[in-house]
């Protein structure tokens, strides 16, 4: 029973220890920030979604990458198209809200909204993200 409790409490304790270590040393906690990828049909949709994300303060920075080719399966058929890709820089804690919001405004039936945690980077950049994306 003590082992079960330890297993349940360990992630919380580890998280607190990492935050304390970060506060004392000024080091970055890997995974605190994320990059989300969102595919869009064309540049106008990409700009509209990027602006909507920024207006809601769900990100500090959105890159709109130029048109690229894509291959994918849709309803059992191999499809080929072009798309615009958004790279969205934000707090990891905002990814759920970002995903829900983008799904609510995106014209695709199943838009690609995936994210990767940021392992390391410029601490001043992370501080800037935090200043521009409010906490929950």
Automatic annotation (TrEMBL):
<keyword id="KW-0732">Signal</keyword>
<dbReference type="GO" id="GO:0010038">
    <property type="term" value="P:response to metal ion"/>
</dbReference>
<comment type="similarity">
    <text>Belongs to the CutA family.</text>
</comment>
<protein>
    <submittedName>
        <fullName>CUTA protein</fullName>
    </submittedName>
</protein>
<dbReference type="InterPro" id="IPR015867">
    <property type="entry name" value="N-reg_PII/ATP_PRibTrfase_C"/>
</dbReference>
<dbReference type="InterPro" id="IPR011322">
    <property type="entry name" value="N-reg_PII-like_a/b"/>
</dbReference>
<feature type="signal peptide">
    <location>
        <begin position="1"/>
        <end position="17"/>
    </location>
</feature>
<dbReference type="Pfam" id="PF03091">
    <property type="entry name" value="CutA1"/>
</dbReference>
<dbReference type="GO" id="GO:0005507">
    <property type="term" value="F:copper ion binding"/>
</dbReference>
<comment type="subunit">
    <text>Homotrimer.</text>
</comment>
<dbReference type="InterPro" id="IPR004323">
    <property type="entry name" value="Ion_tolerance_CutA"/>
</dbReference>
């Amino acid at each position: 029973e003590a082992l079960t409790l330890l297993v349940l409490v360990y992630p919380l304790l580890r998280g607190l220890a990492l935050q304390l270590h970060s506060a004392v040393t000024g080091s970055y906690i890997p995974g605190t920030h994320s990059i989300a990828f969102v595919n869009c049909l064309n540049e106008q949709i990409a700009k509209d979604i990027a602006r909507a994300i920024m207006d809601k303060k769900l990100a500090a920075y959105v890159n709109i990458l130029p048109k690229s080719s894509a291959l994918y399966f849709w309803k059992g058929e191999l499809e080929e198209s072009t798309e615009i890709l958004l790279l969205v820089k934000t707090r990891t804690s905002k990814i759920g809200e970002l995903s829900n919001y983008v799904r609510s405004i995106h014209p695709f039936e199943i838009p690609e909204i995936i994210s990767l945690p940021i392992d390391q980077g410029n601490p001043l950049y992370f501080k800037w993200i935090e200043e521009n994306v409010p906490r929950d």
